[in-house]
Design goal:
By secondary structure, this protein is mainly β. Helix content is 0%, strand content 53%. It is globular, with a radius of gyration of 14 Å.
Length: 118
Amino acid sequence: QVQVAESGGGSVQPGGSLRLSCAASGNIGSIYIMGWYRQAPGKEREMLATISQRGNTNYAGSVKGRFTISRDNAKNTVYLQMNSLQFEDTAVYYCNVKHPWEQRLSYWGQGTQVTVSS
């Protein structure tokens, strides 16, 4: 059993910053890929950023240069630093933890709301 829990969402003005955290617990090892996704109302869930055990990162074009993903393997925790937030960044942000080749071993958090408004 693996539990995934996000924290750090909230409301921010355009141009502001937020830092999301996600802690994974249970039967999980640092080999897992950790990532952040989001889903805005009426839209499909989209990948924002992923990070491997070794720190290799992958970003969606829409957030590259504004968002930074990092992880602490000792704590099984992944972070998402979000800068220069825009109205269109408003969404529910989800953390995902998945095994690199066992596709059935993929776990999601409950999500945390990020709202960008003036």
